[in-house]
Amino acid sequence: MLAKREDMVLDELVSIVGKDNATAAKHIRYAYSYDLTFVKPKLPDYVVMATTVEEIQSRYYGL
After folding, report:
1. What DSSP designation does 17 have?
2. Which label site among 3, 9, 29, 50 has the fewest CB atoms less than 10 Å from its CB?
3. Structural domain boundaries enclosing 14
4. 3-state SS class at 16
5. For the chain, which ranges sit under pLDDT 50?
6. What angle do CA 29, 27, 8 make, to 5 degrees?
7. Which has the closest alpha carbon to 47: 20, 36, 4?
């Protein structure tokens, strides 16, 4: 059985920033779905909290 695409994406995000800094949990995503603007809230697919520049650059630049 093939893994779901969503699971594969989350696994890749976790491999970059760690399991405590990437999630697809609905209650966490909800907290990031709105702000104080008048834009209609939209639930994100994932929440990722990178803690270093290298975490972001490593995948972008293929390092």
Report:
1. H
2. 3
3. 5-60
4. helix
5. 1-2
6. 55
7. 20
> Which amino acid is residue 51, in one-letter code?
T
Q: What is the pLDDT of residue 45?
A: 95
Residue 60: predicted pLDDT: 62
User: At 56, which helix (H) or strand (E)?
Assistant: helix 53-60
pLDDT of the residue at 43: 95
The Cα–Cα gap between 45 and 30 comes to 10
Spatial distance between the Cα atoms of 51 and 36, rounded to a whole number of angstroms = 25
- Give 47's strand partners: 23
1's tokens: 């059985």
Cβ contact 55:13 at 8 Å: no
List phi, psi (to 5°) of 45: -75, -35
